[in-house]
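Technical appendix A lists one of the benchmark inputs used to test multi-chain prediction within the project. The record comprises two sequence entries:
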Amino acid sequence: MELHRLELQNFRQFKDDTIEFAREKAEGITVIHGSNGSGKTTLLNAFTWLFYDEVDFETRPDRLVTEGTIAEATVGKQLTVSVRLRFEHEETEYIAERRAIFEKRSEDDFDGDLIDMGLTLEYKQGTSWRERGNPENSLDQILPERLSDLFFFDGEDIEELAGIDNQERIQESIQNIMGLTILERSTRHLEDAAGRFEDEVEEHASDELAKLIERKREIEDTIEELDRKKDDTERSIERTETEIRDIEQKLERLDESAALQERRQEYREDREKLEARVEKINEEIKAEIDEKGFVPLAIPLINETAERLDEMRQDGVIPSDLSNSYIDSLLEAERCICGRPLEPGTEYYEQVAAMKGEAVAEGVEQGAVRIIGHLNQMSDMESAFFDNIDEYIQERKRLHDDITELTEKIDDVGSELQEMDQKTAGGVSVPELEAKRESKENEKEELIGEKGRIEEKIDRNEEEIESLKEEIEEQRDEREEALVAKRRQKAAELVAEELGTAFGELKDKVRRLSNEKIQDTFGSIASKNLTAEITEDFELKIWQDVGGERVEVDKSTGERQIASLAFVGSLVDIARERYEADGDSEYFTGGIYPLVMDSPFGALDKSHRREVSRVIPELANQIVVFATDSQWEGPVEDEMSPKVGKQYWLDFDEGNDSNTYPRTRIKTEPVGGD
Amino acid sequence: MSTSGGGGPSLDGEELEIDEEKLRRIRERVLQAEKEKLHLDLPRGVINEIEGIVREEID
């Protein structure tokens, strides 16, 4: 999507104004300078109103019509508010326009009554313009509302920008921007279609088959219900954890309890480390059993085999008599095992006779001795195996003892806290806080247990579904209708599975690309010891290197704001790269997106402003920045001005109460200062 | 693939086997339908359309 021209008519303080956006790749930045209150945020709202009928005004949210226009109108007059945007998307030119008609109801009516509102979307085909039948939907496809604040964003809410704590949102943003939505939808819709064919199978099926299908569906419903319960439980766990953290923060802030709370935290961290070691030992025990666990089980048989072989060797059964006597028997019979006659004196007779001898015997005998040796080594392996396992178990026991000791210490801290007198500003005492914390801890434990039980149920139900599916497949049904429906169901399922796999693989590829890009972008802005990451679960995390250890950075820091910016910039950049490149997949198409940013640098400190201003223009082809002079001047201007293609100044006149009204004019020359 | 115990061929055997070419055609047509719905005026009814595609291809 490339923005061309925005026209405003009677929209808040803009009576009749136009902005042409910079579109040259090397000079793709449009700067709109304006002091506070001059209408920068109104311009951002003009986009969201046009696209989604959404506005977010702090003052007089119901007043859309320009105050001067409605004040000067006579009662009963109808006034038109409109925002019109000309843009290009995937090589098609569009004009979107939202118009609202307001009627002035009385002399002192400055809001007007909304009479009518409509949205139109025209697209150019050849030389003529045509209208889209469903403009809301078409616009939502071009720039989905869910993602709109990634592209039209307010610097004040910069932390919320990337939905930084919302992995679902991050995942959705990525796949949507990258053009993977078609695959995701196709998979989902094919599964729905397969469900319809299953209905048909059921309709035409024998009683037995119908029962199996019905049972399968019941279990599918149960799983759905259990999934919902699991989600609810997970949310409750998160909520309880937040409550516990809040209580602990209160304890940390009180003089009396601060040291104890801190100590408890240290004990807990120590305990977690010990628990991690126990976990590792369990894994090592498992690996040892997987690798050598067969030895103790096999040892009686192995010993018996070794003894028997040795006896045979000592008795001379292995090897010489066995092989020589066999050759003798062939020579006596004068016939080889291949059927050829072996007459004494012939070449063949001599060849077979030559196979007798000590070389063969020795080779076989050595082999037997080696095998016996190997088998005897198994006994050594058996004792080494038991020694190793014993060692692991001893170590694990020591760790368990240490864990118990730490748990006791943690409990002691709890008891000590119960005896303190200090109260919070709100009048809650330390013992009360501690009691509440404990009850929340218990609640959390119960919830975790509940979640485990739900997961077990889900697993059991899923196993049953699998076996039912097999039974359904195996059911013989002679009715033609059922057979055809079954084939159709199977076809829909197979294609859904294939597309689902492709979607999963591409999604992961996109995640890896996004991760690499955000690491680069964030790395070039933030301090050296910080890294940003999009995890496999699509969580955006920022890590700090503290003495060689990676620690996650807390919320509400400048770094998270930069990470948000880097995230959006990275997505826009990857989408652009994919759009411009000859892709290896027709489904991972990417796209071109602009960034429209209101005061994006306001929340950043000076050094970060410079870095962000340097990096962001490299990521998007087209950028629209709204800024006050103080936000613009200095590092931002230094970095961005070579890439600025268009500049506008918002000339705000607040008017006086009697005959002039607040109005902003968009000018191409500088007006008064900040 | 297994066979049913009760005599005669089972449906999941040869009778349920679906030609690769047919699957490819379904896949292409479904993706095309989704693509059209993604950008155009009629976003609804795509499941009906997919159902129709499968009906036509598996007859």
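The interface with chain B takes residues 90, 132-134, 137-138, 141, 181-183, 185-186, 189-190, 192-193, 196-197, 470, 473-477, 483-484, 486-488, 490-492, 494-495, 498-499, 587 of chain A (CB under 8 Å). The mean pLDDT of chain A is 85. Comparable benchmark entries are summarised in Table A2.
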